[in-house]
Amino acid sequence: MKSVAVLYGGISAEREVSLSSGRQVVAALAASGYPVRAIECGADLGAVLAALSPRPDVVFNALHGRFGEDGTIQGMLDWMGLAYTHSPARASALAMDKVSARAIFLEAGLPVAPGRLIDITTLVEHDPMALPYVVKPIAEGSSVGVHIVREGDNRRAEIAAGWRHGPQALIEEFIPGRELTVGVLEDRALAVTEIVASHEFYDYESKYAAGGSRHAVPAQIPEAVASLACQVALAAHAALGCRGATRADFRYDDTVSEPGRLVLLEVNTQPGLTPTSLLPEQAAYCGMDFPALCAWMVEQAACHA
Fold this sequence. Notes:
Elements: E1 4-9, H1 15-31, E2 36-41, H2 45-51, E3 58-61, H3 72-80, E4 83-84, H4 89-96, H5 98-107, E5 115-119, H6 122-125, E6 133-136, E7 147-149, H7 156-161, E8 168-173, E9 178-185, E10 188-197, H8 204-208, E11 213-216, H9 223-240, E12 245-253, E13 261-268, H10 278-285, H11 290-300
Parallel strand pairs: 1-2, 1-3, 3-4
Antiparallel strand pairs: 5-8, 6-7, 6-8, 9-10, 9-12, 10-11, 12-13
Helix pairs in contact: 1-11
């Protein structure tokens, strides 16, 4: 069987998520009989390079967030001529950059919320668009740094003062309604899940804390909406140039009338593989257990140099 090195940890805001994903992946691959070694990544890139010797047949990228999900580690692995799981460098960079991804989705005719890029200092002065709206970092995952500003909200200056995600932010119209997600394995949409968060929205704690959210698989939505969500997830995966596994997140506004309005939020090129993660749950719903999902990712791995 192919030898596998699992990269996990990293130095992003999502380190703890990656550690959880990596541990699960290592155990699953070992149970499937793969010769596997775990490489916990920190700030010392030289140590990561040294740990990749002897060269594995496949690098399983279980990193999340910046440097692990934004094309950085992918470019390094391409340079080394190593096959790795998930999307190539360019697709990873485009998906992680919410402004670039929006432009690609719009060009592909996919439904996105109205929005634009602002200097974060703008929030101190005035509301940059009609309320309610969402403030997002350009290049973070797992809802890190996301804020919803509603009618009567006086947190604009507080958000700006506490901003740690660069000089700019993406603002988008807040879409009311329900949170949906669709997992994709290459050219196959798995299912549509509705996520019911215990907090105001599907934030970091809702994603990863036990009891932080409830998942309904399949989502109880009109068949036409479910079909459209799967089509858009596949189209977004292809438009970005993704490979392997991704997950597309949506808002579905059925607050006025059905069939309602479906809006694509983003594509995650490194879906979580933790005990509370959505992609493994959808794969299991489709008859693929976690070891089989991890094995599928290993067998799909490629070098994109």
